[in-house]
Design a protein that fits this description.
Elements lengths: L4 E2 L1 H11 L12 H11 L2 E2 L9 H7 L7 H10 L3 E5 L3 E5 L7 H18 L8 H11 L23 H11 L3 E7 L2 E6 H4 L2 H4 L7 H16 L1 E2 L1 H8 L4 H13 L4 E6 L5 E6 L15 E3 L10 H8 L21 E5 L2 E11 L4 E9 L7 H17 L4 E4 L8
Parallel strand pairs: 1-8, 13-14
Antiparallel strand pairs: 2-4, 3-4, 5-6, 7-9, 8-9, 10-11, 11-12, 12-13
Length: 401
């Protein structure tokens, strides 16, 4: 029997709707509305790079134009709706999800103790009790607070001092929690001071099977359709084998179907989806333009972005400048259900200016007056969000190939 098939247009619209990029970005962007937004997305990746605004703030702003960076800090540090931990990278996550991170703590404890012992400075395990005692007696700390006196500060991820490694290990494995940020440095505290006992108690702890089921269901519901590998990668806790077994069981129970998704080239790829997804009529996304963070969840998996949208995108932060095709930190431009270009722009705080260095239209996309006006409208929104008062286009900013 032939598998159900989704057209590329339908697949794009389902995917963008699940990622909250189809409708106008309405809502207050703070308090309960912000928590609901993050619950729908699942998590929001944190990143320290700031050429205009930090990645997590750009992700939230793309979906709530009234959102401002202070709103996330208030939810995280004062409302305490969120906690910080690891998915594929550091992220803020709804605190109600915390019980399903207990399995992650156990798995990281096994994996990181062996792995980090091989490529971190020796001695970090001997620091565990020292670090815990210091925090217990003196309160929350940043890694710089525990750096060797008179010695070097903690370097990049490849050059942590043993106390910094101990802090990270104890956080990744659940003994510590991050209670907030000082600048962009994590502030670590004892987990029992940060997370409610009801969320971390052994009495209410989900079984591994319950967490695997929760995470796989959460992944397919947020992606709309996915391979077993994409389901496993969403939270980066479930193994590939566990995801394959889960998909098989769900398919046999009639809760998942196999279907073909038509990619941007017309080729078809077998994937899983809910039976009701086959009959969805997702709305056409609004035609406004959005400047997306390079770490936006809708483009996190670069290969999937290319298959679904025909948009080849790579971030070039770690590419030597002479070898970059575009730039250090280039933002994708989404209009409706199509990526229409990418732009290299940055904030110039001293003059309060948003500077547009270069824009590259996608091949085959015509940039007439209407599209340029949409781009300018989005630049004005972004400038206000970043606290900037003017926009400057550099000479030869429009790169027409």
């Amino acid at each position: 029997m032939a598998l159900p098939t989704l057209t590329n247009t339908t697949a794009r619209r389902i995917f963008l709707e699940r990622h909250l990029l189809s409708s106008r970005p309405s809502g207050s962007g703070h308090g309960a509305d912000l928590l609901s937004l993050i619950e729908t997305l699942g998590f929001v990746q944190l990143d320290s790079v700031k050429t205009v605004a930090r990645a997590h703030d750009m992700i939230l702003f793309a979906r709530r134009n009234r959102y401002r960076p202070d709103h996330l800090r208030l939810s995280y540090e004062h409302r305490k709706d969120l906690f910080e931990h690891w998915t594929h990278d550091a992220a803020v996550i709804p605190k109600s999800f915390y019980p399903h991170w207990l399995l992650r703590f156990d798995r990281d404890a096994e994996r990181l103790k062996t792995r980090w012992s091989k490529w971190r400075e020796p001695g970090f395990q001997a620091e565990f009790e020292t670090v815990l005692t210091h925090i217990r007696n003196h309160g929350p700390v940043c890694s710089a607070d525990l750096a060797p006196k008179g010695g070097r500060k903690s370097g990049g991820w490849w050059d942590w001092h043993p106390s910094k490694t101990a802090l990270e290990f104890l956080w990744r494995t659940g003994a510590l929690a991050v209670s907030g940020r000082r600048g962009f440095q994590k502030v670590y505290d004892l987990t029992e001071r940060v997370i409610d006992e009801t969320l971390r108690s052994d009495r209410t702890r989900p079984t591994p099977e319950e967490t695997i089921d929760w995470k796989c269901n959460g992944a397919i519901d947020r992606l709309g359709f996915a391979t077993s590998g994409e389901i496993a990668a969403f939270w980066d806790t479930v193994t590939a084998a566990e995801a394959r077994a889960w998909c098989r069981r769900e398919r046999e129970a009639g809760r998942l179907l196999e279907a073909n998704i038509t990619d941007a080239t017309g080729q078809q790829r077998r994937t899983y989806l809910r039976p009701e997804t086959c009959t969805e009529s997702p709305p056409e996304p609004i035609a406004r333009m959005r400047i997306l963070s390079p770490f936006d969840p809708a483009i996190r998996k670069r290969a999937r972005t290319e298959r679904l949208f025909g948009f080849h995108y790579r971030i070039e932060i770690f590419t030597p400048a002479p070898k970059r095709e575009y730039g250090y930190y280039v933002f994708p431009l989404l209009e409706g259900d199509t990526f229409v270009g990418r732009v290299d722009l940055k904030a110039e705080p001293a003059t309060g200016t948003l500077v547009i260095d270069k824009l590259w239209p996608e091949a085959g996309i015509v940039w007439g007056k209407g599209r340029i006006q949409k781009f300018q409208d989005e630049l004005e929104r972004l400038a206000r969000f970043a606290g900037l008062t003017s926009i400057r286009f550099q000479d030869n900013w429009f790169h027409q190939s």
